[in-house]
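Problem 12. The chain below contains 457 residues. Write out its predicted structure in C-alpha cell notation.
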Amino acid sequence: MKEKGKRIKEKVLTVANFAARFAFLLLAAHGLLLTASAQNDGTEQNATGRAGTFAIVGARIIPVSGPVIENGTVVIQNGKIAAVGANVSIPGGAERIDGKGLSVYPGMIDAATNMGLAEITLAVPGSVDLTEIAVNNANAKAIKGIHPHSAHINVTRVNGITTVQSITQGGIIGGQSAIINLNGSTPDEMAVVREFGLVINFPRVTTGGGFFGPQIEFSEAVKRRDTQIEDLKKMFTAANNYLRARDAYAKDTTLPYVANNQSYDAMAPYIRGERPVIFSSERERDIRAVAKFASEMKLKAIILGGQEAWKAADVLKANNIPVIFTHIYSLPARDDDVYDYYFEAPSKMAAAGVKFAISTGDVGPETRDLPYHAGIAGAYGLSKDDALKAVTSYPAEILGIADKVGTLDVGKMANVVVTDGDLLDARTNVKYVFIGGRMVPLTSRHTRLFDAFKDRK
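Solution.
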C-alpha cells in the first residue's frame, strides 16, 4: 500500500509540475505579446507607405496577361498602372526607379487565408477571431474582425503578396469572406471586396477512429454525410422561403409579418446566385457531392481545399466550379500515397482543364510562403507560366477581381512587385512593393529582429 501511495503521489506531482510549466509558458507568451506591442511605436505596422508618380525604368516586365517585355517601363500614377511598355512617356516629376537587372510582376494573391483574424493562435485566445459557435453564421463578416496592424500583414507583403482573401470559420456556414489589400490603417481602407463569398464547411464522409471516436462502417459514414447534406439543404430552403415571404410582405403589408432573421438576410445574395458560395471540401466523393448540391440549389460554387479535385474534373468543368488548392505543404492523406501526391495536383488540374488557384490556406504567419507553393508545383509538372498565373491572374479571376488586379495592365490597381530574380524562386529578393500605387516600406517584425541581432557575436 505504501508503494502504491508513493506512485500516486509521484503522478500527482508530475501532473502538477506539468500544469505549472504550461501556465508559465502561457504567461511568457502573453508577456512576449505585450513586449512586442510596447516596442511597436507605429513605425512598422502603421506604415502605409507613400503615394506619388513612379516610373520603373529599364526593367524586365512580366505582365502575365501578355508577352514578357525584356527592357521596358512601368508608370504608376494616381494609384493605377498608367503605362506599360518598351516605349512609354514618363510624366514630368515622376520618381524614377532604375530597373536594370530587376523584374516587375503583378502583386501575388492568396485566395484562402485567415489574414487579420488571428495573431497568436495557441497562447493568446484574445488575439483570435476565427470562428463563431452557431451552426449558421452567415451574418458573420470577416471584414468586421480584421486587424489592419497585424504583424502578419507586413511579414506577408514584403515577400510580394499584395492581396488576400480572409475567411471566417465555425459551424456549417462559417460566414462571409473578405478580399483585402495588405495595406491600410482600417479594414475599410484595405477592402477590395467587403463581402465576397459565403463559406460552408461541407459535410464529408468520415469513418472516425483515433481522435475522431470509434470506427464506423463506410456505408454508415455515407448515410451520416447524406443526412447532414439534407440538413444543409433545409437551411437553404428555409432561408429562401423566408426571403420570398419578406419580399411578398414588402409588396403587400396585409400579408403575415415575417420577423427579421439576420442569418437568412445575409444569405440572400448567395441564394440568388449573385455571389459565390465557398465549399470547403477535399475528397473526390465529397467534391462530387458539392457539385450536385450546388447544381440543385442553383449556387455559384468554389471548392476550397480540393485535395482530390483533379479526380472530379468532369463535374467541376461541367458546372464551372473553380478550385482554390491549399495543400502543397500538406502531407499525403493516405499512407500509400506517393510523397509528391499534392505537389503534382495542380498540374493534373491544369491538364484536366479545371480552373484553379494555388493558396497557402494559412492563418497568417506562413502566407508569406505563397510563391514557394507555386514554385514547388512548377517543379512537379505545372508549366512555369501556369505556376505564376496560379498566384496572380487565376486567383483574380476566381475572386472576381481580374478587372482590378492580377496582371500588369493599364488602368488596373497598381499592386506591383519588383524583384532581383524569378518571383517564385526562394533565392529572389523583393526590392519594391506598391499596393494601390503606394510604395510600402519593406519592413516587418522579421526584418526588425534581423537588424537587431545580425551583428551580435
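Discussion. DSSP finds 13 helices and 18 strands in the chain. Students who got a different answer should revisit the alignment rule from Section 12.3.
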